[in-house]
């Protein structure tokens, strides 16, 4: 992995609770809150200069802006929810450029697993643990925050262990 173990360890304790909260809110309410997304972006803005070389930090900030613009257009085209687009933009700077292919593969695998697990739980007795969750009642929409939050958390954990 291109991310350094040091950088992943700096980001992980701050990003992990935000990823968990994103998963919860998207399952429970089908919403990724603006406060969570802003907090995730703030973690990078504040911790990034400590964890990364300054020139790399600036490139990662630019990647966040590019991801936000692309996400806005994808949301406008009906391809994804606004919260999903904003979360992707806030999560983008945490990912080292050399790890993009790995993260895309991790996302694809996680998305398939999250979909299968969510749908299986929806029709199982597990649903009784949280019967009020909005995501159980959605026929066509899927709580993408389940996969997005899991991917960022897993990437940072893997980076902490296997990073450069």
UniProtKB/TrEMBL annotation:
**Keywords tagged on the record:** Membrane, Transmembrane, Transmembrane helix
TM ranges are 32-54, 61-82, 102-121, 142-162
Q: Name one GO molecular function term.
A: aspartic-type endopeptidase activity
Please provide one cellular component term from the Gene Ontology annotations of this protein. Answer: membrane
The molecule here is called: Prepilin type IV endopeptidase peptidase domain-containing protein
Q: What is the lineage of its organism?
A: Bacteria, Pseudomonadati, Pseudomonadota, Alphaproteobacteria, Rhodobacterales
Q: Does the keyword Transmembrane apply?
A: yes
Taxonomic source organism: Sulfitobacter pontiacus
Q: Where is the Prepilin type IV endopeptidase peptidase domain?
A: 16-115
